[in-house]
Each structure stands twice: as structure tokens, then as C-alpha cells.
Write a structure and sequence with these properties.
The protein is of the alpha/beta class. It contains 22 helices and 16 strands. The chain starts with a helix and ends in a 12-residue tail after the last helix. The mean pLDDT is 93.
């Protein structure tokens, strides 16, 4: 099937826009690669320090004749998604020895849980943790002793940060090894119902806690389709996972076999072999377009709109918000996974999963088929399904038809003809809205504004019955320069309650709402942010705002707003406590959300 002309046109725009930056990036990578295997440039003292604790592997390391893999791990046991990584280093070392190579833990990177910090002060460090992860991975790989890297990370900022580092060290191969989702627990719609009941006082905290613990109940990624699972999809669509690796549950024989196979593959694609595949060759313009198509076809996390821009820039590729909107307009929404439906990622995977979706999108001409991946040239490899037969990992043809059309639909008969995201532009600035879970009749909202400078302010107004009307809730001074751009996910139950009461409700914010923004129309990532001169900083209570996802409009209709002085709230509390002091320079130097809200790229 020839490539869809709309996808081709967006790709050409990205290639032309990125011509100079991509050429400069590839030039750096080629020069670094020409220096040969990293360890060849270490003197004896350097090598003695690097291998001192390696026991049985020491002799092979000092000979420098076999590949040495660097393991960059985000393991901690506070994150359910990362807890399985505790045993991965030893598994990888054993698999590397079997493949005739060696492996070392190069270093660890931090991994915070947005589920723990939702609505808490620590969430103000969340977005910037992505840049810290990139920096920490850079320190790990700076020892210059590795012929390839394997990256162990799953959740929201961890994968984007690791991709930024992998692109920066793009002259060596890199392969991402996932841990998989936890098995299904309390259905997501039941959990959401209890949250709304708690917000209105119908149930107490004990009932809420029981529901939350029944939903988040074991090792693995949370099963709703938020940023963490969107990351896993992205790694598969962009060719940094082995095919079919994303959604295999932890602790299963297939999961262990995929980890061993990923290690063996990382060994085989180093410059010491005949199939050298550096990351810089994988992360090109076509790979990022494929990733965006996957994001839209699955109704994935809005956080990736920010992260992919930053990830791409690390590889010399310049993405803009308009690229996401144009690709969304060309891409059918093929999946309904909570919060866009009732199913979880395990149900999605069982229905045919990413392999079925990639096959359908290739057949419709909506993906570049000729991309370079860790599995070899060509995305068609990712239509296959891994199976464990008599203890041996094999690949079979994926399913030819969806096994549950309430969860996964063919490209020719999707849930809706366009993807899950629209760009919003107007006098209030530029933002995005995830529309895949928003009912069509709620995609145009015109109502008076209620303006707040914090989530707590919205909660207090709701509890005082001050929002029981048609309203556009404006939450500003939530951008990267103001307070690190925390997710405002704690507002979702409140806004959903107002909407369920029959009111016209929308959110406008320069903050984030993550992959779980749900059924309330939310204009998010508004830039310029309030602290950076955006008009959102001049809006007052009662100003009439229009949010129109159909026309892509974000407008304040009240006259004279631009002539007002901007609001000057006291933001000093954003500067201290729970580590915020350490991130002052990040807030001062962060770019706008439209540029990835980045510090390091």
C-alpha cells in the first residue's frame, strides 16, 4: 500500500524543517562511531577501575574482543512498573554470557511515580525528572566502556528521559527492555466511579482506599492507558523494543524469554558484529512520524506531545504541535482503552494488540514501512507475535482480525475516523486537547471563566458549591516556569461530577493533565504560559471563553482583556520544600511546552 499522502506531506515538512539540525546531529554521531568500540580508548588504569569487581567476566572484558553491554536501570520497588527490574541485571548478564558477551550495570536513574505525587508538592518535580533522567543516563554512559546499551524503564518521564540519553549517545546501539503491565484488577470504570463518589462525599476514605488498592495491586505497569503504557506503545512503533514485547505480564516465562532475546539482539547489533545498528539510525523523522501515528490510533497520553518534541530534538528532529494535529486528522482511532473506554491494556493486548494495529496501519498506508529498528529493517516485523514453544522464543503471524471489536477495531472501521488529539490556537495561545474520550456534543464549550492559581482553589470552590453551573475552569501559573508544570489529574473527578450534573464544563490550563484526562474537554499545555506573558495571565472571573475542538479554537471573547495588567500572584511557595529548591535553575531555563518544556535539549 502506498504511503498516505497526508502522512507523506507531514513527514516531508519535518524533514525539511530539520534539515540542518539533523545533518549536524548525524555528523556528530558518525564522527563518534568512527573512533571504534569505546573500550579501545581506555588506558590500563581506566580499564582496571571499570572491571575490578567483574569476577568471571574480567578476562573477557580486558581482552576487548567481545561486546560489553551497559545496563541503565530505573529500578526501584516503589514503582510497581519498575519493581520487576530488580532481577533484570542478572538475567541480562547471564543472557549476555550465553551470547558470548558481557554486561555491566552502567548506572541507575531516578524514577518517580506520578500516581504517588498526584495533587502533592512532589508532582512539581515530575516533568523535570525527565531531564534529570537524561542527565543521569548520560553520566552512566560517559564511562565510555560500552558497545551498546540496554535501557530499563517504563513510566511517564523515565522512557522519554532515557530516549533523550539514547539519542545523545546515538553512535552506539540501544535497546529498551520493558517489564510489562500488572494483571487486571478492579475494572477502571468501577475505580473511577468510586473516585467520583468520594469527591461528592457519598463514600468515605476507607471505601476509596479499598478501590484504589484493588486496582493497583501488584508488580507491573498500571493497566489504564496513560503515559506509561503510551510509552511502551511508542517504543514498539518506533522500533526500540523487540516486536510484541510491550504488554507481556511480569514474571511469566514469555517475559523472561523476551528479556533474554533482547539482550542477545543488543549483542548482535554492536559495531563488533556485522549488523551494526546505532540508535541514530533508528530515531529519524520517519520513526517519529510512526510514533505519532501510534499515539493517535491508540488515543494515547497527551504528555507524549511534550515528550516527543524533546526526544526528537535530541536526535536533531524538529517537531511542532501542528504535526501532531495533522497526523491525528489522518489517523483513525482504533482502540478504546481506559480512560477512552472500559477495557485495560491486558484486554487490548488479548484482542490483538500492537501487532494487529501495526499491520492494519501498514495496510492502510499510514505508517512508514521501511524504518530501521532494533529487530532489523522494516516495520512489518512488528506485526508478528512472540510465542514460547518448548522453551524456545518464536514469532508467529499476528492475528488477522480483532478478537474483541469493543476494544480494538480495524483501520477501515474505526471507533472514529480521526485520532485522539487536536491543536487549539487563538488569542489565549496554543494548546492541545485529547478528544478520544470526549463526547462529540461536548467538544465546543462557551461559558464564563472561573480563574484559579492552584488545584486546591478549584477543590475549595467545588466544595463550597461555587462551580455548580456552566463554567470554564482556568487554572494558570501551572507551566514549567511557574511550578514545573505538574499534572492536574486530581481535578478530573471534580470536573466530571459537574459535567454529569448536566453543566457545560471545560478546563483551560498552562499545566498538564496526562493520559488520564478522560471525558471532560481540557485545553492543556497552553503556551505562552501565564508567567511567560501569555494572555491566560490576564483572564478574570466571568470572562467568556470559547473552546472549540472542531475548529481548533481557543479564544477569550470578552473585549479588552489584552489591555489589562497581568495577574501577579505570590508564587514564592513554589520555590521551596520537597526538593523544589534544587530545581530552581530548571524553572528559570525551561522552554515552553510547545518546544518540549526542555532544559537539556
Amino acid at each position: 500500500m502506498p504511503l498516505d499522502t497526508r502522512i507523506a506531506a507531514v513527514t516531508d515538512k519535518i524533514i525539511n524543517r530539520s534539515k540542518d539540525t539533523r545533518a549536524a546531529y548525524l555528523g556528530r554521531m558518525r564522527r563518534a562511531a568512527e573512533e571504534g568500540p569505546r573500550r579501545a580508548h581506555l588506558n590500563c588504569g581506566n580499564q582496571a577501575h571499570a572491571y575490578a569487581a567483574m569476577d568471571a567476566d574480567k578476562a573477557r572484558l580486558t581482552e576487548c574482543r567481545v561486546p560489553n553491554l551497559g545496563i541503565v536501570t530505573a529500578y526501584n520497588d516503589m514503582l510497581s512498573a519498575h519493581q520487576p527490574f530488580e532481577t533484570y541485571p542478572e538475567q541480562i548478564k547471564q543472557a549476555a554470557r550465553t551470547a558470548g558477551a558481557t554486561a555491566q550495570v552502567a548506572g541507575g536513574v531516578p524514577a518517580m511515580c506520578d500516581g504517588v505525587t498526584q495533587g502533592q508538592t512532589g508532582m512539581e518535580l515530575s516533568l523535570f525528572s525527565r531531564d534529570v533522567i537524561a542527565l543521569a543516563a548520560g553520566v552512566a554512559l560517559s564511562h565510555n566502556t560500552f558497545d551498546a546499551a540496554v535501557y530499563l524503564g517504563v513510566c511517564d518521564k523515565i522512557v522519554p528521559g532515557l530516549v533523550i540519553a539514547a539519542a545523545t549517545f546515538g553512535f552506539i546501539p540501544g535497546l529498551f527492555i520493558p517489564a510489562g503491565p500488572m494483571v487486571s484488577g478492579l475494572p477502571n470504570d468501577a475505580k473511577a466511579r468510586v473516585r467520583q463518589q468520594f469527591a461528592t462525599g457519598q463514600v468515605g476514605r476507607a471505601t476509596l482506599m479499598e478501590a484504589e488498592m484493588a486496582s493497583y495491586h501488584g508488580p507491573g505497569t498500571c493497566t489504564f492507558y496513560g503515559t506509561a503504557n503510551s510509552n511502551q506503545m511508542l517504543m514498539e512503533f518506533m522500533g526500540l523494543h523487540l516486536p510484541g514485547a510491550s504488554f507481556v505480564n511480569p514474571g511469566t516465562p514469555l517475559r523472561e524469554a523476551l528479556t533474554a532475546a533482547a539482550t542477545a539482539r543488543a549483542v548482535s547489533i554492536t559495531a563488533l558484529g556485522n549488523d551494526y545498528t546505532p540508535v541514530c539510525d533508528i530515531l529519524d523523522e520517519k520513526a517519529f512520524v510512526n510514533g505519532i501515528v501510534g499515539l493517535m490510533a491508540t488515543g494515547g497520553s497527551t504528555n507524549l506531545v511534550i515528550h516527543m518534541v524533546a526526544m526528537a530534538r535530541a536526535a536533531g528532529v524538529i517537531l511542532e504541535c501542528s504535526d501532531f494535529a495533522e497526523i491525528s486528522a489522518a489517523t483513525p482511532l482504533m482502540a478504546r482503552v481506559y480512560p477512552n473506554g472500559l477495557a485495560d491494556v491486558n484486554h487490548f493486548h488479548a484482542a490483538g494488540g500492537l501487532g494487529y494495529m501495526i499491520a492494519q496501519l501498514l495496510g492502510a498506508g499510514l505508517l512508514h514501512p521501511d524504518t530501521c529498528t532494533v529487530a532489523g529493517r522494516g516495520l512489518s516485523r512488528y506485526t508478528q507475535e512472540p510465542k514460547l514453544k518448548d522453551g524456545t522464543l518464536t514469532y508467529d503471524a499476528g492475528v488477522g482480525a480483532t478478537l474483541n471489536d469493543k476494544v480494538l477495531r480495524p483501520a477501515a472501521d474505526p471507533f472514529q475516523p480521526t485520532g485522539g488529539l487536536v491543536e487549539l490556537c487563538g488569542n489565549l495561545g496554543r494548546g492541545v486537547m485529547k478528544v478520544s474520550a470526549v463526547a462529540r456534543e461536548r467538544r465546543v464549550i462557551e461559558a464564563p471563566a472561573a480563574v484559579f492559581h492552584s488545584q486546591a482553589g478549584v477543590k475549595n470552590a467545588f466544595q463550597a458549591n461555587q462551580l455548580n453551573r456552566d463554567v470554564i475552569v482556568v487554572v494558570r501559573f501551572q507551566g514549567p516556569k511557574s511550578n514545573g508544570m505538574p499534572e492536574l489529574h486530581a481535578l478530573t473527578p471534580i470536573l466530571a461530577v459537574l459535567q454529569d450534573r448536566g453543566h457545560k464544563v471545560a478546563l483551560v490550563t498552562d499545566g498538564r493533565m496526562s493520559g488520564a484526562s478522560g471525558k471532560v474537554p481540557s485545553a492543556i499545555h497552553v503556551a505562552p504560559e501565564a508567567l511567560d506573558g501569555g494572555l491566560i495571565g490576564k483572564v478574570q472571573d466571568g470572562d467568556v471563553i470559547r473552546v472549540d475542538a472542531g475548529l481548533g479554537a481557543l479564544e477569550v471573547l470578552t473585549k479588552g482583556v489584552a489591555a489589562r495588567p497581568p495577574a501577579r500572584p505570590d508564587l514564592s511557595d513554589n520555590d521551596t520544600g520537597i526538593g523544589r529548591e534544587l530545581f530552581r535553575v530548571f524553572r528559570q531555563t525551561a522552554g515552553p511546552a510547545t518546544d518540549g518544556a526542555a532544559v537539556v535539549v
